[in-house]
Amino acid sequence: MLKLIVKNGYVIDPSQNLEGEFDILVENGKIKKIDKNILVPEAEIIDAKGLIVCPGFIDIHVHLRDPGQTYKEDIESGSRCAVAGGFTTIVCMPNTNPPIDNTTVVNYILQKSKSVGLCRVLPTGTITKGRKGKEIADFYSLKEAGCVAFTDDGSPVMDSSVMRKALELASQLGVPIMDHCEDDKLAYGVINEGEVSALLGLSSRAPEAEEIQIARDGILAQRTGGHVHIQHVSTKLSLEIIEFFKEKGVKITCEVNPNHLLFTEREVLNSGANARVNPPLRKKEDRLALIEGVKRGIIDCFATDHAPHQTFEKELVEFAMPGIIGLQTALPSALELYRKGIISLKKLIEMFTINPARIIGVDLGTLKLGSPADITIFDPNKEWILNEETNLSKSRNTPLWGKVLKGKVIYTIKDGKMVYKD
Ligand code: DOR
Ligand code: ZN
Fold first, then answer.
1. Which residues contact 165 (CB under 8 A, 6 or more apart)?
2. Cα–Cα distance between 280 and 226 in angstroms, integer?
3. Shortest-distance atom of ligand 1 to CA 277
4. CATH value at residue 178
5. Where does this protein act, in terms of pathway?
6. In this structure, how many other beta carbons lie within 10 angstroms of the beta carbon of residue 230?
7. CA of 179, nearest ligand number
8. Residue 405's CB: how many other CB atoms inside 10 A?
9. Contact assessment for residue 410 and residue 384, using Cβ atoms and an 8 Å cutoff
10. 300 plus 394 within the same structural domain
11. 189 and 45 in one domain?
């Protein structure tokens, strides 16, 4: 029997309201015991003194680019970034080439990620065949094959009747629709519609492109009983709309990309195309509302929207591919809120663990006895720099490149096996 003890760490598990200095005994890949001073002579020991010990992080929004665009990232490099960022489970987006609208692609991803053997990779299927927004994909067989949600991420579903049908089907299958909300008639440009787009003379994306679709899909979720999960929420009004539906008891949840908490549209003036993302970085007022939304629990979880693109695809803002990498920077970014006294570490961990687990309906994100021993161990104060040496992605598109970051994952354990060590 393989035994491991994580000793002397400060354990925080929001799923069972557990917080304090404890040892964790892992046996055969499962959580066996959490107690003070566990002694098992034959067990391997990980000394976590001075470190935070919590359930393995879950990221429900990752672009692995595999199959089809493996020059940007692949399942192996993406998995390496994930475990280095503390994520033991990631949900990958279906805008691959070919897209995940058939079971062959699902099986390929599941097999390859298993053979890489670092983190759990849970695929999503497309809402519509070919992500074309017209014909609904075969949800039933995609779910059977292992998809945990459906999304046309990267593109909105413009046709309301298609979205209604998708929510009806998803409701029958008990899975969420993950919703990239941006009406493409109002969001066709490259950055937020506002002072910076005016200053630089750049084409833009209006905030109401997002808000209108959230309102529509909240109504459709109410009508169908389906669960709509709003991806990368980015404006103040979006949050007000989400709160409205939550108060009515509609099944609506949402995530925030930590980059939207750190930066505004003005970051384009510093980082150029590396600050180009869809939905775009918004105004200060929006950024502050998002932070408030985290604090008040209107936002359910962090999700990185890790979206790798090569440097040649990020030269000019006007022509750049949208997206920012984020698996390795999510924890230090979120810790900024903790350091400013806005949220507790417990709240931060909840948003990386049990909350995303609940959204996709998996029994993970917890250290409950008998659960898979997925454990993240981090130092909230360790400083490091994301650069050539530390970056594990094939891409480097982030405004945080070369910046000093505070907070570092020291060990990541998945199913009782160490998959990352600083
Ligand atoms: O900025 C983005 N990049 N937003 C998306 O929705 C898609 C993603 C990508 O695939 O690059
Ligand atoms: Zn998206």
1. 136
2. 27
3. 1
4. 3.20.20.140
5. Pyrimidine metabolism; UMP biosynthesis via de novo pathway; (S)-dihydroorotate from bicarbonate: step 3/3
6. 29
7. 2
8. 19
9. no
10. no
11. no
DSSP notation for 241-275: HHHHHHHTT--EEEEE-HHHHH--TTHHHHHGGGG
Which three-class secondary structure state does DSSP give residue 169? helix
Output Rg (C-alpha) for the chain, integer angstroms.
20
Structure tokens at 380: 């909230």
Same domain for 268 and 165?
yes
Query: Closest ligand 1 atom to the C-alpha of 231?
Result: 6
Indicate if ligand 1 lies below 6 Å from the C-beta of 193: no
Domain carrying residue 255? 56-360
Find all residues with CB under 8 Å of 259, minimum gap 6, and list them.
Answer: 277, 281, 305, 324, 326, 333, 398, 399
What digits encode the pLDDT tens for the residues 291-315? Answer: 999 999 999 999 999 999 999 999 9
Flag whether 259 is in a domain. yes
State the amino acid at position 125 in one-letter form.
G
**Ligand 1 pocket check: which of 61, 63, 183 to mutate, most ligand atoms within 8 Å of Cβ?**
63
Rounded to an integer, what distance in angstroms lies between the CA atom of residue 273 and that of residue 95? 21
280 lines ligand 1 (CB under 6 A): no
Q: Is the dihedral of CA 213, 215, 220, 222 positive or negative?
A: positive
Known binding-site residue numbers for Zn(2+):
61, 63, 153, 305
Q: How many angstroms separate the Cα of 163 from the Cα of each of 41, 125, 219, 281, 397?
A: 57, 14, 11, 26, 32
Is residue 106 over pLDDT 90?
yes
| Amino acid in position 418 | M
Pair 35, 70 in one domain: no
**How far is C-alpha 168 from the chain's CA centre?**
25
**Is the C-beta atom of 397 inside 6 A of ligand 1?**
no
Is there a contact between 302 and 326 (Cβ–Cβ < 8 Å)?
no
Helix then strand then coil, % of the chain, to nearest 5? 35, 25, 40
* 365 domain residue, yes or no: no
Tell me the one-letter amino acid at 269: L
pLDDT, tens digit, 9 for 90 and up, residues 187-239: 999 999 999 999 999 999 999 999 999 999 999 999 999 999 999 999 999 99
Looking at the structure of the chain, the number of domains it has is 2
Task: Report the C-alpha gap between 264 and 286 in whole angstroms.
Answer: 8
The rounded Å distance from CA 343 to ligand 1 centre is 28
pTM for the model stands at 0.98
- Whether residue 366 lies inside any domain: the answer is no
